[in-house]
Amino acid sequence: MEICRSWVGGQSLPSTGERFPVVNPATGEVLTHAESATAETVAAAVESARAGQKIWAAMTGAERGRILRRAADLLRENNSELARLETLDTGKPLAETEAVDILSGADAVEYFGAVATNLNGESVDLGPQAFGYTRREPLGLTAGIGAWNYPIQIACWKSAPALACGNAMLFKPFGNDASDSRASGADLQTGWCARWRLQRLARCGRCGAYVGERTCDPQGFPDW
User: Fold this and answer.
1) Residue 62: pLDDT band by 50, 70, 90 thresholds?
2) Which terminus of the chain, N or C, has fewer Cβ atoms within 10 Å?
3) Which residues pair with 157 in a beta bridge?
4) HEC string of the chain?
5) Which residue in 224, 210, 187, 206 sits closest to 45, CA to CA?
């Protein structure tokens, strides 16, 4: 049985964290096992994202938008399989996951792929003696937290705008969700998750605290 792990640096990252069963809530069947992220996993994810974000941010908005639109295409091409995983993972009706969950996530990714091409600054007329302009610059690393009922959809909603603007995303799903991990690890790495753009953490009891600690680190995330 495949073990679901954190997705860091474009690959599945083993950890020393606790393994837990991922259960189909409709039947009680154990679908797979997942390996919890640890503080070391979070540190590796931050390091990978920090290094890659500089490359990602240096791309033009058109280049980032093209990659995000390709990711949306991949979501739609694999809608049936991803919806099946979502249903097994959440217990939701297949009719809903096929018609709403994956496709609405793809819509969000496609939308922000288009937004990426239009992220421009402004020129400001300050009178006959002066001229000003503004620039839009990425924040750097961002973090998102998912929920149990729309795992893939919320991953798309939170990641797409951050990625469109040139940021990297560290995403922590709900504790028992494994479908979005397998999805990103299998089908989406070519278009979206390749290497450093999106790092995905598997469940851990202190994962939120680990991410928070990194958030307060000026070498990690912006300190707001």
Assistant:
1) very high
2) C
3) none
4) CCEECEEECCEEECCCCCEEEEECCCCCCEEEEEECCCHHHHHHHHHHHHHHHHHHHHCCHHHHHHHHHHHHHHHHHCHHHHHHHHHHHHCCCHHHHHHHHHHHHHHHHHHHHHHHCCCCCCEEECCCCCEEECCCCCCCEEEEECCCCCHHHHHHHHHHHHHHCCCEEEEECCCCCCHHHHHHHHCCHHHHHCCCCEEECCCCCCHHHHHHHHHCCCCCCCCC
5) 210
